[in-house]
Amino acid sequence: MQPVNKKTVFIQMNETQRYALIGALFGLTFPIIGTLLRLITSDLQITIANLINAQTTDPILWVVDTAPFVLAFFAGYAGRTQDRLLITNDKLVTREQELYKYQLSLEQRVEDRTREIEHRNSLLRAVAEVGKGITSYRNLTELLQQTTYLIHNNFGYYHVGVFLLDDRKEYAVLAAANSEGGQRMLERNHQLKVGETGIVGYVTETVKARIALDVGQDAVFFNNPDLPETRSEMALPLVVGGRVFGALDVQSTEPQAFTEDDIATLQILAEQLAVAIQNANLFSETEKALEASKSIFGNISREAWGKILHTQPRINFLATPPATVQIFNQVSEQSIGKAVETGDIIIGTDGLTISVPIKVRGLIIGAIRLKKNEISEAWTQDETNLAISLSDQLSGALESARLYKESQQLAARESLVSNISSRIGAYSNIDSILRETVQELGQTIGNASVSFQLVDQFDSQKQAEGRGESANPESSKKAKG
Predict the structure, then answer these.
(1) pLDDT digits (tens, 9 = 90+) for 105-134
(2) CA end-to-end span of the chain, whole Å?
(3) In this structure, are 379 and 445 located in the same domain?
(4) Residue 208: inside a domain
(5) 95 in a domain, yes or no?
(6) Domain residue limits at 444
(7) How far apart are CA 372 and CA 384, in angstroms?
């Protein structure tokens, strides 16, 4: 058996036991001292026999012998009270420790929450900054490229890429990236199969954001040689009104860089980018339609002016104080002819004469010659710009006049057709309708031959013809306009 460590046993005793033991030991001194005193007062030698005899024959020593028990009882009671106090104190200490731990936990939670709020606020500020920046771009390519730079500068992500779906919605094609690896991927026309390759493929098919980390239960191994430092990746769908344009892909060098809260915040940015992409597409389509309409209208306008210039004699006006007069000379002044021929501004050798071409949708229809008096200074740049502005305003006014004239002619033709239709409609007989039609057309067109015929299914013909007069011999009315 191993020896018992008395000190250890003593320490392990509670206060009740310790107090009772001390009381009993202290009370034991009373019968010892009493017995010794009894022998001394009786002039007896201190021997074991005399001690036993004194204990058995003296009733007073019997009473004294109870002292250890009495003192042990009262001391034990005091120790019990001390135990209760110690237990209460231990409970208070434990409670205090629990409260302190709870306080630390609350402080940690407040600190974590504050940090989360600050992080979220910083993300929102960055989202607002990027959203404000991308609204200023109309060209799709520039919009996407600048967006990757803005997100990188404001969020500090290692790689930012924008994928757009192809026309058949089969592949997500990388359209812009900020990193060097992303630029190499752009050169290779990097694309991912929708619904099959990577989280970008998953996002473009399910229209749900997704996070990939290289740690944790759902760890992903990133093995893109162009982006070797990637440790976390998040992809968000670019969708507006149910239409998916592609995905925004962001990657970080930190193992756990993204959380679900980041998805909620950055999805706002993805939606803003999707709206910007939609607007850029609409703007591009509108520009193309406008250019097409300008081209068609410009061709029509140039053709109309070509006919006017071909059929109308040369028009010349000279404005000198005190009046403006028309010149009927068909020969153009040399500088005006050169301005019309070259389409450039012609400045005279004396610096006092300037000829500015008048252009309507790229077609030169004339020129303006401006001449200062002999004592004036040469034309300045500001004065030349003023002359160019005058030429532009004149071309616009001439084009408006041409359009107004054409609209009047069109209105007159429509009115004439309406009148002829109303007159023809007054007849119910086929012969009368044909005769009236030929006669009205002959009067409207002038000295022209007008023919009209109907062919039935038996290849028989019924013809009404008028050559300067009605097809009906009974009518002597001329078909002149």
Answers:
(1) 888 888 888 877 776 777 777 677 776 767
(2) 147
(3) no
(4) yes
(5) yes
(6) 425-467
(7) 12
